[in-house]
Amino acid sequence: MKAEDIASIAKWAKETDLEEIVYKNGKESFSFCEVWREERNFNFISSMANINSPCVGIFRRSLPGRTLNISEGDEVKKGEVLGYVEVLGEHREITSPYNAVVAKVCLKDGDCADFGVPLFFVEKK
Fold first, then answer.
1. Contact criterion met (CB below 8 Å) for 37 and 14
2. φ, ψ for residue 7 (rounded to 5)?
3. Which residues face 29 on adjacent strands?
4. pLDDT in tens, 40-62
């Protein structure tokens, strides 16, 4: 297939409401995917939220000598402690800003937490 043919197919596809075309013929193939079209005014709505690290440090699931086992699927209340970021021996609390269900715990205990990196994903209730 010639480049001009692909260009004319791509132009035609943009003029339609098609979002994806896949063409295969023997060894020849191509795919065209319209990932985002602003004119569609697509609004993504989700109750999912990320809780990010407020600083650079070591992610801790609980304080030394204590057990805090927040796991995926757990319901948490606004203000409840989810974990900690340890910085120079001090532990900064990571609290839930919402009544939510924990969808994902992003780091393991002892992992490095960079500023702004998601620590948890929660589904707001």
1. no
2. -60, -40
3. 24
4. 555 556 778 999 999 999 999 99
Kindly state the helix (H) or strand (E) to which residue 10 belongs, with its residue range.
helix 3-14
Q: Tell me what the pLDDT averaged over the chain comes to.
A: 84
Q: Identify which of 68, 81, 72 has the alpha carbon closest to the alpha carbon of residue 102.
A: 72
pTM confidence score: 0.62
CA distance 31 to 101: 39
The SS3 assignment for 4 reads helix
Residue 34 tokens read as 């319209």
Q: What is the pLDDT of residue 81?
A: 95
Whether residue 39 contacts residue 25, with contact meaning beta carbons closer than 8 Å, is answered with no
| Domain range annotation of the chain | 3-40, 48-124
| pLDDT tens-digit readout, 15-42 | 777 667 777 777 777 676 665 555 555 5
- CATH number, span 48-124: 2.40.50.100
Can you tell me the distance from the alpha carbon of 27 to that of 71, in angstroms, rounded to the nearest whole number? 48
